[in-house]
Amino acid sequence: MADVLEPGQLNTYFSLMEAVSLLQHAVTQQLRAEGDLSYVQFELLARLSHSDGPLTMTELADGVVYSRSGLTHQAGLLEKAGLVTRGPSAEDQRATVVAVTEAGRELVAKVLPGHVEVVRRLLVAPLSTSDLDALGGIMARVRDHMRAEPPRSVATRRSSARNEHL
Amino acid sequence: MADVLEPGQLNTYFSLMEAVSLLQHAVTQQLRAEGDLSYVQFELLARLSHSDGPLTMTELADGVVYSRSGLTHQAGLLEKAGLVTRGPSAEDQRATVVAVTEAGRELVAKVLPGHVEVVRRLLVAPLSTSDLDALGGIMARVRDHMRAEPPRSVATRRSSARNEHL
DNA sequence: CCACAATGATTCGACTTCGAAGCATCTAGA
DNA sequence: TCTAGATGCTTCGAAGTCGAATCATTGTGG
């Protein structure tokens, strides 16, 4: 293990960060324009739409934001917009369960095609099928590795399960 | 929209976004802990340290932030911290040229090893050399494609290019 | 039953980022 | 020269994120 990275490895890191930054900016613009949603809001709605039932705030936060307060804020906005509902949990009075409303599902369905189109145009289009397969495998491995790595005192009070899809 | 993305392509996109989000969060923590710098501030200092001479605000902003006002704010903070200097340009009275100070160079030198170490541990470690090479090539291609792609309603008023709409 | 810690969520303040509007300067054309 | 538009940067307000502190509930030990 070398102490210093090869120059090419650093360049890989920079390319990765800049490309994703550009992609993130593009999809953020699209979501704001077509659905008046932030990227996080879209992620939350998509997660709720895809889940079987309502989720608690903690389950919903996992993997989307790095602070609970941020989720509280966004969930409040989504509730005010009529896209989700919040209510007390039956089992645990401390917990708040969040459910997507019909309007929320419709909004996701409305903005999803445009979202996918942006991804297709910016990420999929310039790559070959084998490139995409390779990228998918590589990033899944990196992601899993990071999830497992010691959180290093990240303030997220980790909960039990980890969601896989979406 | 008959040809939506393959499920695997969408998963590639999600893996990419989540992995980079985790990586970004990790390096941000490291920079804040070891140098009291934000990621953008570090990028600006690194860019200035690496350049031959001072840069104008516009040159400095290119590729780092998506708004000029954000750069103005950060440059002000860096100047207040004594890490950069700002002064009028000789050729163009409108322009502000930014130069890194010795303290700025020293701070970059101080935090860079830890920064590289985080990247090595989270991104490089779980991948093989060939994976890294492939990733570098793929992301460089994606990045270049996005840079060329048009509809960046980004406020980057480029020197020679001219945007038609919006 | 009663402290007391752990857990789920919210409130609050500080910081960052962006977009629109504004000011100053440069440039091109009549 | 004079005027209008383009360009460089800053100011200002709105929105988002995070961390620390806080409130409420659950669980545990005496």
Query: How do the SSEs of chain A run, as a string of H and E?
Result: HHEHHEEHH
Structural class of chain A: mainly alpha
* CATH level-4 homologous superfamily of chain A: Winged helix-like DNA-binding domain superfamily/Winged helix DNA-binding domain
Multimeric state of these chains? homodimer
The coarse silhouette of chain A is: globular
Q: Would you tell me which CATH topology of chain A applies? A: Arc Repressor Mutant, subunit A
How much β-strand is present in the residues of chain A?
A: 5-15%
Largest inter-chain interface?
A-B, 54 and 53 residues
Number of strands of chain A: 3
How many distinct helices of chain A? 6
Q: Could you give the order of strands across the largest sheet of chain A? A: 1-3-2
Just give the CATH class of chain A. Mainly Alpha
Spans of chain A of 5+ residues with little confidence (pLDDT < 50)?
152-166
Instruction: Round the mean pLDDT of chain A to the nearest integer and report it.
Output: 86
Tell me the radius of gyration of chain A: 18 Å
Description:
2 copies of one chain form a homodimer. Chain A has 166 residues and is mainly alpha-helical. The first copy, chain A, has a single domain (7-156), classed as Winged helix-like DNA-binding domain superfamily/Winged helix DNA-binding domain (Arc Repressor Mutant, subunit A, Orthogonal Bundle). Chain A is built from 6 helices and 3 strands, in the order ααβααββαα. The first copy, chain A, has helices at residues 7-35, 39-50, 57-61, 68-80, 102-124, 129-148, and strands at 55-56, 84-88, 96-100. A 3-stranded antiparallel β-sheet of chain A has the order 1-3-2. In chain A, α1 (7-35) packs antiparallel against α5 (102-124). Chain A is globular. The model of chain A is unreliable at 152-166 (pLDDT under 50). Chains A and B meet through α1, α5 and α6 of A and α1, α5 and α6 of B. The structure holds a DNA duplex (30 and 30 nucleotides).
